[in-house]
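Two records follow; treat each independently.
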Amino acid sequence: MLGDTLDLGDHKSFWLDFDGRNYDKLKGSFNVDVVIVGGGIAGISIGTFLKMEGFKVAVVESKKIGQYITGTSSAKISYGSNLIYSYLLNKFGFDFTLKFKQAYFDGFNKIKDTIEILNIDCDYKIVPFYLFSMENDENNLKLIEKELDALKKLNIPAKLTKDIPQPYNKANLALVYDNQAEFHPLKYIHGLANYIGGNGSYIFENSHVNMIVDNGDVILPNNKDNLNNGLNFDKNNKSCKNNKSNNNNNNNNNNNNNNNSTKVVKTKNGEINAKYVVIATNTPIYDPDRLYEHFIQNKSHILSFIPKKPMLNTMFVSSSPFSTLRYNPSKKGQMAILLSQHHPIQASKSQWDYYRQVKEIAENLMEVKSFENYWTGGDNLTEDRIPFIGETSRKGFYVASGFNSWGMNTGTISGIVITNLISNKDDNYSEIFSPQRFKKSDYEKNIKLKNTKLKSTEQVNHDLNDRNEIIADNIEVWDNLEENILNLENETEKLIIFENKILAIYKDENSKVFILDGRCTHQSCHLYWNDAEKIWECPCHGSIFSYKGEVLKAPAIFNLNQHYLD
């Protein structure tokens, strides 16, 4: 296996070495004011800020809090991002961008204030943040200068410099934000979680939500059979069409919605009754506004390693080619955390190739004493680069998603915005994050999105404007399942059509075979194999399944069906 020859250390996130507190599974029935589904930076922040306002809350996490998305991030804290403000001024105008700026300044400051109030030990440090391009061509330099012009208009402190610290001292020009921050994301989340638990508020781990009821109506799931049997297959052109049907995300009944209705979030062994429900999974498991149609799925590959020589504690972002670098203390000394190789979920090549490329970047930047960890992370990018935070079209249901790889600050903003909305407090910016904005007929026209959508034909198997067609270029047609599996080499996967069904097959190192449905249980998109992590991934909306079929990441809530040879 290629991973063995790369010598990258432990195949898990560096952050997961932190051993935080464990929380009980949800068992029995509980009553709170607000139930929050998802225990990452957004869900835990929302729970913390709501409890600070006097609400009783429950956070329900399907795995361990903070471990899947937040725990695989690079955890930089900044009100600056990748050339965002010049884009916003151009597409949305000054007033909108000023509100956006205020939100991200508030989120940045809220993290610092919360750490101080709750006395959280999370390796929080103030550091400068350098934004630049390693491609020192005139166009990229002009983009950086344009961003500075936008920052000046918005009164955001930043400056241009040619004096860029190692290991990026070969870049010609950088935009510098002083006094940005970094921390250990799991230490921070567990500090917040320690505050949430108690006095009628709860955190539940290993508690997989499988049903949501509103005023007696089951709104999640609506009809699992529609999702499992919604495809017709054509063996000749290997295409599949999604049969149009009403799915669980379209059952709004908005005229009957009532903020005072009883809402129940259920797991296998328990339930929570609440007045409000917040969906804070990376992609919403309940999505009445079909936000998933405006997401682009993106992945990155990350290495942590010990430099031979100490480096200046600084955050770096190269806009082209994209990569980020930061440092964190560890038991072995200064740990460098390098993120690179952004790419869509696709079947184009081995995931090990991406890790190899990140390793080459690291070794070209500095002398490496030892590679310690390697892992993959991902986030949703939204079409307009604005997150979805706020109340959905179903009253009393809120969502926080689409963080555009800017999760620490945006997850915190989610806590601020949703707490204000539930508390009926005014702020200056909640409206710009509305999950319902794409329902406005003039929205795309007014901001001229038609020419600026962040979509790629390599990224999804069906266009954002036509979710009914999926072209499965990597699917083989088999006539004899048993014979083909017998001839399959160990540690090999196949996505096949057999007897008019798509199957996902993996044969492990011991010749054990796992045969699964090859379509995601969310919206029936066919799956791609990730050979490094040994998982099946959905390129459409980001669901992830183990090779045994267990759902690991939303929006899917059902495992893949298993099949067995006679």
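The next record belongs to a different protein.
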Amino acid sequence: MDELNITYELSKALAGLKYSDLDNETITDVKYKILDWLGCTIGAGQNKTVVNIIEIYKEMGGREQSTVIGGKKRVQMVNAAFANGMIGHALEYDDVNKPAITHPGAIAVPSALAAAECINASIEDFILGIVAGYEVMIRVGTALNPSHYKYWHTTGACGSLSAAAAVGKVKGYSINKMEKILGIAGTMASGLVAVFGTDAKLVNAGHACYAGAMASEFIDRGLTGARDIIGSKNGFAKAFSQEEDLSSITDELGEKLMIGTAFYKIHASCGHTHSAIDGILSIINEEKLNAKDVQSIKIGTYKTAVELTGEFNNSSEQTAKFSLPYCATCALLYGQVTLAEFSGNILNNMEILETQKQIEVYEDDECSKLYPTKRMAKVKITANKMDYVRTIPLPFGKPPHSFLEKKFMSLAAMTIPVKLAEEIKDAVLNLEKMKKMDELSIILKKI
């Protein structure tokens, strides 16, 4: 009996997915996923790195196919995918999936957007492309982790396959073409964890989007890719994981969509800090504590969180977002961890520097054993000679729609007029009333 061709099975499910398969809850979720990504992307517009990214791609020129958000200009589809993939990940505020250890929206949305604008696809195909991108990212990321994440940034490496699925679905690829685009994008995959805390982390996301978009250009001109890029004996899963479980790709494939398993970020920092932040905020709010009452905070969490975020670092906005002691200090002092807490005047605040000395981060065995299914943090705050303890299994990531709309407006208003932000929000939340992508593109070009 022939071995199961994982990539073929995935391609079959993707090619067979129809808009009529999506229930109202899923369509609403897609719209809020788009809104959240757009908020992160528009809000990053004043970031120096993002300004440079936009200028680079505007100067490169080329055919005017797809919009660079914030650039008020169209560029080649593959370059729009690369640019928007980087920009949308710049604030570290985009959605996440816990078991896959990834940012699925950072790849699925800009990839589908670039392709859909390029061919003026239907809105339905745009939505399907996003669903397909989430499906591949979450299924493949879950199958390869947690060992994959030791060296490889899932958003970048698995993102190449996610982007390929998003673009291929927008373009209406058959099973055969879907398998081929995954085959080419899979061999273009990259993205190292070593770059975390630097601007190069954005390149991981952008390059993944580019890989998917560029693979479609190759496929449309007759190039071929490996048949089972994911499951073959010398393929993607074997190369990128030490303990792959391919059943995560095929279980309930075609029956259960994965997009609903992605969580929205409530805090503007690395996701590995969020359970601890939630624990601190829960204690100080429920127990009505003030920062001056606190003598110490001990945070037990999983090994990956300790390795990536366990040290205090306030040298830059990016490094601070990857510092649990810094983020915990902000939660204690300001009762929140928003973008404001990473501004220059806060980063070097003497109160931050003094208070962080009270915080201890250590690896907890139980938390490590449960990762990545859980992203547990055990928080103990000692205040007024009393110990207050909270265990947070997973970050709080299912906020009401009203929170997401407020998040979008606050991010968008950092860069564009409130009236335009309202127009974008209303357009996205009524997306299904549009027929073709050019109706949305007209609005996006105003940013």
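Discussion point: The chain has two domains: 6-265+410-444, 271-392. How would you locate this feature using only the token line?
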